Amino acid sequence: MDRTFDLTDFSEDELDALIGEATSLRDSRRSDRARELPEAADGSKGQDVRDPDHGAITAPTPREVKEEGPAHGA
Question: Is-contact 22 31, C-beta < 8 A?
Fold first, then answer.
């Protein structure tokens, strides 16, 4: 997510307020996510696909099956 914002015209107070609001929003999102996906006894965190360590095993797409299946006897 590459977003560029021009902050050059902001006063120091406006920048402080923006940073404070962004920090509060980030902390709120983190606490919501932590509450929704508590860690299991084995340390896993459920299936949050936005988490790069979620451990999902992907299934092949129909195209992959069509193109690669014959090579594997499918």
Answer: no
Distance CA 4, CA 70 (A): 47
Dihedral angle over CA of 32, 34, 38, 39, nearest 10: 170
Q: What is the pLDDT of residues 11-56, one digit of tens each?
A: 999 999 999 999 999 988 887 766 666 666 666 655 566 666 656 5
Nearest Cα to 19, choosing from 30, 31, 5? 5
- In angstroms, rounded to a whole number, what is the distance separating the alpha carbons of residues 59 and 8? 47
pTM over 0.70? The answer is no
Report the distance separating Cα 39 and Cα 2, nearest Å: 30
φ and ψ of 52, to 5 deg: -65, -15
